[in-house]
Specification:
five-stranded mixed β-sheet, alpha/beta, 41% helix, single chain
């Protein structure tokens, strides 16, 4: 009788565990190999009912159209991740790009030059994930971890009638960037190396940089390859002149104090890549699948 009682308890406990796991979709995905520590973290996050993200209001990231529908590759992928854990997204819109990197009382410029100097940005006091296209620059990776999954080359975007074909053609023109962007970072190196006389104009909205180039004269900008293709498709007088960088990787940011979440996101991204989720949302935003984008970029 005692043996039967113990067996019944064991069966009940196993059944309870299985039922509990089935309510959290990601725990039922056998292709995602989660550690016990990660499973525990996911269950705790599920109990909270939400995951807090910071994102940027722009068309490829997080965007509400005239019908009230939320669009944007990064948002849709993050929302799929949240649904796999059985939680809602708690969204904070970042209105200035620099806010992803700053901490009150700390010097962001020193981070770029002093290898031993770093800190955790203030924004991580409010959110758990940066859901935006953040290029993995070395100084940024001192501030937080980046789950890298989008290959990229930075491209000079200009008007077709500007006849810009090479680096020297950028001399005596104006460049428009968002401050503390990877575009500014790479171009400043290029400017110094080639001794260019180029005026820099700062703008806080990435989309407006394309508008300024389309409507201006003797002005250019630099975009990540995904947005470069998108800008050229949207503004018919723009063209891609040439790349200014080797391959870089773009991804989402997570605090270094939250390495378990970084690992979970890394495994989810691989799963989403393998099962076509990333292809689907990339095509909805950029007009081609992620796999096609990779082929055009000739990324191996």
């Amino acid at each position: 009788m005692k043996k039967i009682y113990l067996i019944m308890i064991t069966v009940f406990m196993i059944s309870f565990i299985v039922q509990g796991a089935s309510k959290i979709p990601i725990l039922n995905e056998k292709s995602i190999k989660l550690s016990q520590e990660e499973i525990k973290f996911i269950k705790e996050l599920n109990k909270k009912g939400r995951v807090k993200i910071a994102t940027t209001y722009q068309e490829n990231t997080y965007y509400i159209d005239s019908d009230g529908k939320i669009k944007g590759f990064h948002y849709k992928l993050a929302n799929d991740f949240a649904s796999k854990i059985g939680v809602k997204l708690d969204i904070k819109i970042v209105d200035e790009w620099s806010k992803y990197f700053i901490k009150k009382g700390e010097d962001i410029e020193r981070v770029k030059t002093d290898e031993k100097y770093s800190y955790t940005p203030d924004l991580f006091n409010e959110v758990e994930i940066y859901v935006a296209g953040i290029t993995a620059l070395s100084w940024r990776e001192k501030l937080f971890d980046i789950v890298k999954f989008i290959p990229n080359k930075q491209m000079v975007v200009c008007r077709r009638d500007e006849n810009i074909k090479k680096i020297g053609d950028l001399n005596n023109k104006s460049a428009v960037f968002v401050k503390n962007s990877s575009f500014e970072n790479n171009f400043l190196k290029l400017l110094t190396k080639n001794k260019l006389n180029t005026k820099i104009i700062y703008e806080e909205d990435f989309v407006k940089t394309s508008v300024m180039v389309s409507e201006g004269k003797d002005i250019f900008t630099i975009h990540d390859s995904d947005n470069a293709f998108k800008a050229v498709a949207e503004y018919k007088n723009l063209t891609i002149a040439f790349p200014i960088s080797d391959f870089e990787m773009i991804g989402w940011g997570v605090s270094k104090n939250n390495r378990i979440l970084t690992s979970i996101l890394t495994k989810y991204i691989k799963y989403a890549r393998d099962n076509g989720t990333i292809d689907k949302y990339w095509k909805e935003t950029f007009g081609v699948t992620f796999s096609e984008y990779m082929r055009v970029l000739e990324y191996r």
